[in-house]
Specification:
The protein is of the alpha/beta class and about 150 residues long. It contains 6 helices and 5 strands; from the N terminus they run βαβαβαβαβαα. A 5-stranded parallel beta sheet has the order 2-1-3-5-4, sandwiched between helices.
Length: about 150
């Protein structure tokens, strides 16, 4: 699978570990930065790069790592077509894909360790959307909200 990955300074170290791990598990990784430690960089820049890569079809899934994962999730979800979720457990990581069509996972580099992050990514990358009627109906409603808003 082609996976776009980005991280700010708070996720920089974990990003390097996760890229090596994903590549060793047969995934093709698009590293979208940060490429060096810069405590003044901003997570929205990396969330936008990853989300843009997924939307453009350059990557099948995306991973964004910031301090808590919250800011990355908020920023990535501003991009039309992205369904990003903060995941620090394996159930949420696979269920988000299977039931909700999640295409970007966000992780807190200051929240979980390397082994848990690997397990989360394994669940996320190994899952597929389940095209059952109820899940598709709900996903269609999410897409409709994105297109039309509430007003």
């Amino acid at each position: 699978m082609i996976v776009a990955v980005g991280a700010d300074h708070a996720g920089f170290e974990l990003k390097g570990e996760m890229i090596s791990w994903m590549e060793s598990n047969g995934h093709q990784v698009k590293d979208l930065g940060a490429y060096e430690m810069d405590t003044d960089d901003d997570y929205p820049d990396f969330a936008a790069a990853v989300a843009g890569s997924v939307c453009a079809g350059e990557a099948e899934r995306g991973v964004v790592i910031c301090g808590s994962g919250v800011g990355a999730s908020i920023a990535a979800n501003k991009v039309k077509g992205i369904r990003a979720c903060l995941c620090h457990d394996t159930y949420t990581a696979h269920q988000g894909v299977e039931h909700d069509g999640m295409n970007v996972v966000c992780i807190g580099g200051r929240v979980i360790g390397i082994e848990t992050a690997k397990a989360v990514l394994e669940s996320f990358l190994g899952a597929s959307f389940m095209p059952e009627e109820r899940f598709q109906r709900r996903l269609d409603k999410i897409i409709q909200l994105e297109q039309n808003g509430l007003g």
